[in-house]
Write a structure and sequence with these properties.
8-stranded parallel sheet, two-stranded antiparallel ribbon, binds NADP nicotinamide-adenine-dinucleotide phosphate, alpha/beta, Aldo/keto reductase
Length: 314
C-alpha cells in the first residue's frame, strides 16, 4: 500500500503496480498536462495510463515532468496501436519520445486486431467497402514475439495485452516465453465479465478495468442501485463503482481532467472498497445479469474477438 492508501498489486513477474491509475483517453492535450501534474503532485496518483492512439502523449509527458515527482516513482503504461503490430519497437520508440522517458513500466497490445500498416489512414484504415482494413496475413503470435523482444531489451519492464478475450489469449499463450502480466478490458458493473475474470485469475494475469465509470455520459452514475448503496455508506456513486472493482484486486483506470474528480476518485475508491459489504457486492455482481448488461466501447472490428456480449457486427 502507498502513502495515499492505494493498494498495490503484484504482477506475475514480481513487479508491483499501483491499483489506481489515471486514464487519459479523450483528455484534451491542452487540459491533460495540468490534470496529470495535479493527479501526481496533489492527489497522490503514481500510475498513468496512456496510449499512442490517444494522440496526447507529449502533453501527458509534460504533466509527469511538471509534477516534480521522480520518474522512478511513477508507473507509466502505454499501448501499441493496431496499425503497428508488425513494427512494435518503432511504435514504442515514438511513445517513449512523446512521453520524454527512456522506458515504460508496462506496454500493452491495444487490440488483438492488426490493421493494414500501409492502408488509407494511419489509425483507422478502411477498405473500399467502408470496413476496417484488417491485416489478415499477420499472426498475433508474431506481435507478441516483438513485445517480448522489447521487454528483453529493457525498453519496457512488463508486457501485457488489452481487449483480449480468452480465445485471443489462447492464440498467444502456448508459444509465449514471457507471459502477459495484465489484460486491460472494459470492466464495470454493467459489463462485469465474470467468466473472463476467472480465466485471467487461473492464468495469473491481472485484470485492469477501463471505463470503470462507464465512460463519457455514463448511465452508471445515475443507476438507482448504485445510488442506494452510495447513500447507505455516505459516499458518491462514482466511489461505489470504483471501490467495487478495487476490492476485487482489479486495477482501475478512471479518467478525469477535473481536479476535484481526480482527487475524489482516488480517495473515494479506497474508502468505498473498505466499506462495501457482502450484500452490496452480491447486488453489484448481479446487476448485469439482471438485465443491465451493456458495453460502452465497441469499435466495429470486422473480426470475431471472442467476447461474450459483443454486439453483432455487420
Ligand atoms: N484499452 C482500451 O481499449 C481502453 C478503452 C477505453 C479506455 N481505456 C483507458 O481507461 C481509461 C478510463 O476509461 P474512459 O475514459 O473510457 O472512462 P471512465 O474513466 O469510465 O469515465 C470518464 C468520464 O467520467 C467523467 N468522470 C470522471 N470522474 C467522475 C466523477 N467522479 N463523477 C462524475 N463523472 C466523472 C469524466 O469527465 P471529466 O474528465 O470531464 O471529469 C469522463 O467523462 C481511459 O481514459 C483510458 O486510459 C482503455
Amino acid at each position: 500500500m502507498s502513502d495515499s492508501g492505494v493498494p498495490t498489486i503484484t504482477l506475475n513477474n514480481g513487479v508491483t503496480i499501483p491499483g489506481i491509475g489515471l486514464g487519459t483517453w479523450q483528455s484534451p492535450a491542452d487540459q491533460v498536462t495540468q490534470a496529470v501534474a495535479f493527479a501526481i503532485k496533489e492527489a497522490g496518483y503514481r500510475h498513468i495510463d496512456c496510449a499512442w492512439a490517444y494522440g496526447n502523449e507529449k502533453a501527458v509527458g509534460e504533466g509527469i515532468r511538471a509534477s516534480g515527482v521522480p520518474r522512478s516513482e511513477i508507473f507509466i503504461t502505454s499501448k501499441l496501436w493496431s496499425t503497428w503490430h508488425s513494427r512494435v519497437e518503432e511504435c514504442l520508440d515514438q511513445t517513449l519520445e512523446n512521453l520524454g522517458t527512456d522506458y515504460l513500466d508496462l506496454y500493452l497490445i491495444h487490440w488483438p486486431v492488426p490493421l493494414n500498416p500501409k492502408g488509407n489512414h494511419p489509425l483507422f484504415p478502411t477498405l473500399p467497402s467502408g470496413k476496417r482494413d484488417v491485416d489478415q496475413e499477420w499472426d498475433l503470435k508474431d506481435t507478441w514475439r516483438q513485445m517480448e523482444a522489447v521487454s528483453v531489451k529493457g525498453k519496457v519492464k512488463s508486457i501485457g495485452v488489452s481487449n483480449f478475450s480468452e480465445a485471443k489469449l489462447e492464440e498467444i499463450l502456448p508459444t509465449a516465453t514471457v507471459k502477459p502480466v495484465v489484460d486491460q478490458i472494459e470492466l464495470h458493473v454493467y459489463n462485469p465479465q465474470h467468466k473472463l475474470l476467472e480465466y485471467l485469475k487461473s492464468k495469473g494475469i491481472v485484470a485492469q478495468a477501463y471505463s470503470p465509470l462507464g465512460s463519457s455520459n455514463s448511465p452508471l452514475l445515475k443507476d438507482e442501485t448504485i445510488a442506494e448503496i452510495a447513500k447507505k455508506h455516505g459516499v458518491e456513486p462514482a466511489d461505489v463503482l470504483l471501490g467495487y472493482l478495487l476490492l476485487k484486486d482489479i486495477v482501475i483506470l478512471p479518467k478525469s481532467v477535473t481536479p476535484a474528480r481526480i482527487a475524489s476518485n482516488l480517495t473515494g475508491a479506497v474508502s468505498a472498497s473498505n466499506k462495501l459489504d457482502a450484500t452490496d457486492i452480491e447486488q453489484l455482481d448481479g446487476l448485469a445479469a439482471n438485465g443491465k448488461q451493456k458495453r460502452f466501447i465497441t469499435p466495429p472490428w470486422p473480426v470475431d474477438l471472442g467476447f461474450e456480449n459483443w454486439p453483432k457486427l455487420a
